[in-house]
Amino acid sequence: MYGVKSESDCEMIHQDQMDSPVADDGSSGGSPHRGGGPPLKKGPWTAAEDAILVDYVKKHGEGNWNAVQKNTGLFRCGKSCRLRWANHLRPNLKKGAFTAEEERLIIQLHSKMGNKWARMAAHLPGRTDNEIKNYWNTRIKRCQRAGLPIYPASVCNQSSNEDQQGSSDFNCGENLSNDLLNGSGLYLPDFTCDNFIANSEALSYAPQLSAVSISNLLGQSFASKNCSFMDQVNQTGMLKQADSVLPGLSDTINGVLSSVDQFSNDSEKLMQALGFDYLHEANSSSKIIAPFGGALTGSHAFLNGNLSASRPTNGPLKMELPSLQDTESDPSSWLKYTVAPAMQAIELVDPYLQSPTATLSVKSQCVSPRNSGLLEELLHESQALRSGKNQQPSVRSSSSSAGTPCDTTVVSPEFDLCQEYWEEHPSSFLNEYAPFSGNSFTESTPPVSAASTDMFQLSKISPAQSPSLGSGEQAIEPKYDPGAGDTSPHPENFRPDALFSGYTVDPSIFNNAIAMLLGNDMNTECKPDLGDGIASNSSSWSNMSHACEMSEFK
DNA sequence: AATCGGCCCAACCGCGCTCCC
DNA sequence: CGGGAGCGCGGTTGGGCCGAT
What we know:
The chain is mainly alpha-helical. The chain folds into two domains: 7-11 and 20-89, Homeodomain-like (Arc Repressor Mutant, subunit A); 157-466 and 474-549, no CATH class. It is built from 31 helices and two strands. It has helices spanning 15-19, 47-60, 66-72, 78-89, 100-113, 117-122, 129-146, 153-165, 172-180, 191-202, 210-227, 229-236, 238-245, 250-256, 260-264, 267-273, 290-303, 315-318, 331-335, 341-349, 356-363, 375-390, 419-424, 426-433, 449-459, 471-474, 496-502, 507-517, 527-537, 539-542, 544-549, and strands spanning 396-397, 410-411. A two-stranded antiparallel ribbon has the order 1-2. Helix 8 (153-165) crosses helix 20 (341-349).
């Protein structure tokens, strides 16, 4: 490893190390390897080196690491010495696997802090940031592979409670939004401006998707119910940015942003205002936000440039979507499968955190005996998933299926878990799973355009609605023709926000809810970044009455 | 038994912050 | 005030280990 294989190699510095200007500069601020001294050794530490370092620290204490080389003749930079000491040599270090309690704590801490390994390590005596980091990276890999949630429900619930009580020393929303969402690369990109614009540039029909932002905005707001995202939403002006993508809503937005706050503490009211009250289970503690997840995760997947939603968004099924009278779709019946609210909040934030396949896995026979989210249990669920997959074709490309316009995506293997059920119970599937239909992100999901076009196709609007669309865009126009009496659902309705409106009992309610969500503190900072294309093409979305008119299923 | 692929984890790397001169 | 030194942090790398085939 690193060119140093044994202790005997200590005296032999490899040529590549010799060639490097500084074997290990120790810090950006100044290299300990200055003035033509012997090149510093890299690679694994030997027992002799450890002994030297330990002896030095015993005599001089920690700190002043660059002095180690000077005083001991150890050909290691101070940085390397510090790392070695901190991670391996200092006393009271715990070695070995993390205990279950430690794992829970790590998960909980990460849900609050994000990738602040050092801070997390401070809560875990004897554990190093490096250990925690490695553990977490491993965990993420496993979760991704298994399509399982990274955060067990209990963890985020606890975080939520702490936030609501103001007892946490950090804010779940803040950290999720800043650290989780942006920091690790697993999480939500800054979709509203950065990713969104990037995608917009890549796709000619992206402007229409500006409206997707509002779904995210709304969804983020609802996510705040469980993970205190509302603070972040307010702080970052995400809601304010909605005005940039929905200029026509300026008045509405300008009017009531301040009223958003009340909903951060009273999302029930908001849910009802949005016509989602039927989603509430009798047990208020089990309130779900799945429909928002549908809107959200769909848009989210798009925002991540990853999507494989072709199946669940196929037309005929959409007609069944609002039906909650289906036995399968009875809230109480499918709530029993539903992961805890907080977990769903996480889902809303990031398709990585819980893909729909993860949801499916939970709903399927592959239910873990526990749901603590510990690695061991993840393995269990992963194995269960695999066993489930073994009963079905392992990989299926939707391009080989019915040939729907959207079937350009390679469906994740996990998705096959629900394939048969999907085919047999399309309506109930949609009712149950559609909320996550746009969120089928897995490792097998193509990173950008191929998958995203599914969503984009679903999201684009007709020329009538968007006169600015060129002929080129028409190549991907939906087949639905309202004028021709086509009773197929308009692809517009597959837009996350259309789904959103589809659930709306009353368009006015929807409007009011939008108004309440998007307040009046208009912030134009983002406007220039959004670009002319979006601004001009968002006209079709600027009048939300259009969205309300899409409430065909009310 | 050999090969392969995934996992683990120690270490490296670059960046940024703080302190001091 | 500016620059250097020291240090910490988070991300990444890559070799060894181990189980599966």
